[in-house]
Specification:
single chain, 226 residues, alpha/beta, 6-stranded parallel beta sheet, two-stranded antiparallel sheet
Length: 226
């Protein structure tokens, strides 16, 4: 049995991760799911992630979407067995600083701010676009109601890392479709065990068993027992 910590994006609630976590638990893993609450600053988000990762034996860390930004900070603070990016941001390997939300997207989202907060992630686009990402209407409504209204200050957040932060880190990348095609290509070019599934960005919600199978296969290629 492996200890696994699933780190979700600041923009999604735990409900979006629970079917995947349940699938991992069904396979005998000890699973924790973290969706950060301190969404006003990158420092607060990193503290929550680090606290979860360091709360037990060194885990396999799975990061989805925006949570990928925090892998360097986690890896330099905590002992981890391996990291698996699931359709996630891939921080620059040469280090330096970067924005946790790309500048073009941040500019668009700034136009939607009300009372210092962003609309829920499920409301960034028309419902007809977002609902098909979910397995059914009930799950869409559950995630929509639970999704946080992230503080607008998060859009200007920056993180930094030293060059070569991933050089000794067992790492894999699993993409869903082409949302993170550039990140997937970079992972492949680095020689990371990588795969791409024909799923949408919430593939871990719609097809948890498929994603778990692919993730475990990638981890075995770097000799991580799962």
């Amino acid at each position: 049995m492996s200890r696994i910590v699933v780190l979700g994006s600041v923009f999604l609630p735990p409900a979006a991760l629970e079917p995947f976590a349940a699938e991992l638990a069904r396979r005998g893993h000890d699973v924790a799911v973290i969706a950060p609450l301190a969404t006003g600053s990158v420092e607060g988000v990193l503290e929550e992630y680090v606290a979860a990762v360091s709360a037990g034996p060194p885990p396999i860390v799975i990061v989805h979407s925006n949570a990928g930004n925090y892998v360097p900070g986690i890896a330099t603070t905590c002992e981890v067995v391996a990291v698996c990016f699931l359709d996630a941001v891939f921080p620059p390997l040469d280090g330096g600083s970067w924005n946790v939300v790309p500048s073009a997207l941040a500019a668009e989202l700034n136009e939607t701010v009300a009372d210092g907060r962003l609309p829920r992630w499920t409301r960034w686009w028309p419902e007809t676009v977002v609902e098909p990402l979910f397995p059914n209407r009930a799950m869409f409504e559950r995630v929509d109601q639970a999704a946080p209204e992230v503080e607008a200050s998060y859009l200007s957040g920056e993180l930094s890392a030293s060059p070569g932060w991933a050089s000794a880190l067992p790492t894999t990348y699993l993409a869903f479709g082409d949302t993170y095609a550039e990140e997937y290509d970079r992972a492949v070019s680095q020689g990371w065990p990588s795969d791409r599934l024909p799923l949408d960005h919430l593939g871990l919600l719609t097809s948890p068993a498929t994603v778990a199978n692919a993730m475990e296969k990638l981890l075995r290629t770097i000799e991580v027992p799962v």
